[in-house]
């Protein structure tokens, strides 16, 4: 059997896509609900249960303010703080997921969460789209030598290339056609994401350009169209949010699939995997209409989707002042961090420039939380 992605001794046939149930933070800090969601994912036919390991200060600044999300405006820093859990919480979920026959996958957002996950023995890592340019995190994960999946929403081909390049020395990587340790998920960073924005023909382009297995992380509302069409277009991995009910209070629950809908999605993915691609596409065109299917397939050119263009450089990471910095002060690790900007604060310099910034003096006062721009940066300390 040709392997495309290996983890923990398991291999997956490209004809039988790896289905990831994205639970995220939908547990709300309740271990009992986390296990209930894992059980629902297993019963719905998922292969993997995915969570998010959240520490607020690794993601955004307290001055980020209110962020519009599927369930309405949310004071995101405070919500993230309420979702912080310790090592034991994630270890318990990992043990339970594996007892249900699922892979355990979790997304870290910084060095603290990455090291927590490594400490509990995670065998598989995931990078969320906004962290595709969080180079400190990518270098940390690359040093672990573990299979890693990277989402590529709100990103350009150049962004993807830079991110994958940080993993060039990953021990598990053997190249296309063999057991490899990197995979790339095409994603549209909008909640919900319009089916017409998915441009699924880009999967073949990404696989050819970067030489890694590709899949889709789907934020659209329909249970079957994008997941099944992505498999017919070459996806080896399908990730979609799961919830117990769309009326639950989780950040992503309004766009997640309840268990019965998730099970329908799995059935559609399996059917598409067994059919010839052209037959699967024809079947979906018959069900959804040729125009809708063609719109979702797109032209295969990698670009920012219309629904996510406004998020570029705001959802992604940039360099921000973690405290008020006075003119003449020296930039150091205690005063600068790579954070998501979101809607209120101004974006800063690219995180790749963090080593350049260290040791230089501020040319003007910078408010706590604001992005650091070139105009703020002076010479090095004498």
Query: What is the CATH T-level topology of the largest domain?
Result: TIM Barrel
Globally, the shape reads globular
SS element count, helices: 12
Give the low-confidence spans: 170-180
> What value does the average pLDDT take?
92
User: What is the helix/strand order?
Assistant: EEEHEEEHHEHEHEHEHEHEHHHEEHEE
Structural class: alpha/beta
Fraction in helix: 25-40%
Secondary structure: number of strands: 16
Question: Alpha-carbon distance between the termini?
Answer: 61 Å
CATH architecture of the largest domain: Alpha-Beta Barrel
What's the CATH class of the largest domain, please? Alpha Beta
- Assign the CATH superfamily of the largest domain: Aldolase class I
Q: Over the alpha carbons, how many angstroms does the gyration radius reach?
A: 21 Å
The largest sheet, given as strand count, sense and whether it forms a barrel, is: 8 strands, parallel
Order of strands side by side in the largest beta sheet?
Answer: 7-4-3-12-11-10-9-8
Query: How much of the residues is beta strand, in percent?
Result: 15-25%
Number of domains: 2
